[in-house]
Amino acid sequence: MTIPQDTAPPDRGRPEEIRAVAVRHPGRWVAVAVIAVLAAMLVHLLVSSKVLQWDVVGQIFTYQTVIAGLGRTLLLTVLGMVIGIVGGVLLAVMRLSHNPVLSGVSWLFIWVFRGTPLLVQLFFWFFLGALVPTIGLGIPFGPTFVSWSYNSLVGLFTAATLALGLNEAAYMAEIVRAGILSVDEGQTEAASSLGLTYGQSLWRIVLPQAMRVIIPPTGNEAISMLKNTSLVSAIALEDLTRAGQDIANRTLYEIPALVAISLWYLLLTSVMSVGQYYVERYYARGANRVLPETPWQKVRRNVLRLGRVGGAA
Amino acid sequence: MTVQPMVRAEQVHKSYGPVEVLKGIDLQVEQGQVFCLVGPSGSGKSTFLRCINHLEKINAGRLYVDGELVGYQERGGKLHELPDRVVAQKRRDIGMVFQRFNLFPHKTALENITEAPTQVKKLPKAQAREQAMELLNRVGLADKAGNYPSQLSGGQQQRVAIARALAMEPKLMLFDEPTSALDPELVGDVLDVMRGLAEDGMTMIVVTHEMGFAREVGDALVFMDEGVVVESGHPREVLTNPQHERTRAFLSKVL
């Protein structure tokens, strides 16, 4: 039997870099051409149209009633989401509870508020005064100590807030429940073996981890909420949409008014998307070894890389 | 004065629906003992361990920790379930270490350890941190205090988990296959920490496949199979001279 004297490969140095001809993508170039033509047509329409007067759009964009409506829209969105999130967490915890009364009530709430259209619920809160003329504090079926009329207690804005918030709570409940269920059972076991109570383990251990699953759909919900607030114009609440409509009706600048308020909605949803990104990043702590970059860090890295390539060439 | 056994099990039964997992376990763990539970998977040893801190409810029999019934109170010849708050209180005295570590991934190693002392015992933060640093030092991970669990190796995570359990100053430690999820070269570090605990006189119940550890550190060993105790005695005796056929068959596979 012979034993090879030298098993190491002869030193031939590092092979040369592969410089292959890249695959051609003619389809992409066709697509780019088609899109470019369509974009040019759109720009032409936007600039040259007699109906769409950009100076009028600009005026409506910052018009006093539009700004006031914008304020109401924002306030409704924030209040609706706050009620939705708080209510959703409460409903989700109730739903997962071992207490059959609590989980039953939660199921019923979600069934009703997810099963009927938001616009119908909005009308319900608006017209509820007809069914419940007065609200009082007292003994059920017994004497009443103080009472208020429904319409003085629940004004237009409160009715809208309740409708948006309670409807949102039903959706948030399912999102939060999915988040809680996504956390490994070992986490609750570890927490209870340390002597933490159910509430402590839910609040300090499970929910913070569930947030990673809860945040992305909640961002979607917040963006939907911003747009759904436009439904309140149906009960004559002066929100952003209603303010735009009023201007359109008064001045017949329908398209400029619609473009102006659409720009506001787009601007707000864009800001919310950026906010969502940072909240997601915060709750990714511990889940990723390295935190994802902020948009600013990404830009800086890309610029630096470009600079390096430029310097080398 | 006689010393109370740390754990006493009398005819403990546990079933999941129609499946009976524990079929009458009798055993006694003395104070300061290192008590090893061995047996094939599915023999019920992990289930029994989880019954001791009431993560599982037993269906029949009696289980006492330090002289007190687990999960119940006996009044007027009847068992009364303990409220969750009281069960949580009793669990403070029993530390548990899991096969899959179960560290809190959103908290650093240090925060994992200070969580229960600050939340349950209401220890001031500074004091809890100081204690946590001592414990990290003891398990050889003082330099990893600020790391998240995902930035630690399995062996390091398990040592943090042990420190986390020790932070509540338990009188009894339960180990549920603490080294089974670890790469072989990381097992030694975890066993060293456990050996140190045993030398300090901690009462420990260890479900393990590490026969070397059982032989060297264990004071008592129980071999379980199919929900019953097949054989028990001093680890060296049981492991070198098993009396029962089933014990012999199992040991021939793992040793």
From TrEMBL, chain B:
Ranges that cross the membrane: none
Per UniProt, residues of the ABC transporter domain are: 7-251
Question: Which transformation does this protein catalyse, written as a reaction?
Answer: a polar amino acid(out) + ATP + H2O = a polar amino acid(in) + ADP + phosphate + H(+)
User: Origin, by domain of life?
Assistant: Bacteria
Pfam family membership, one: ABC_tran
Quote the EC number: 7.4.2.1
Keywords assigned by UniProt?
A: ATP-binding, Nucleotide-binding, Transport
Gene Ontology molecular function terms on file? ATP binding; ATP hydrolysis activity; ATPase-coupled polar amino acid-transporter activity
Gene3D superfamilies annotated for this entry? P-loop containing nucleotide triphosphate hydrolases
Q: Which PANTHER family match?
A: AMINO ACID IMPORT ATP-BINDING PROTEIN, PHOSPHONATES IMPORT ATP-BINDING PROTEIN PHNC
Q: Which family does it belong to?
A: Belongs to the ABC transporter superfamily.
Protein name from the UniProt record: ABC-type polar-amino-acid transporter
Per the UniProt entry, what species is this protein from, by scientific name? Streptacidiphilus pinicola
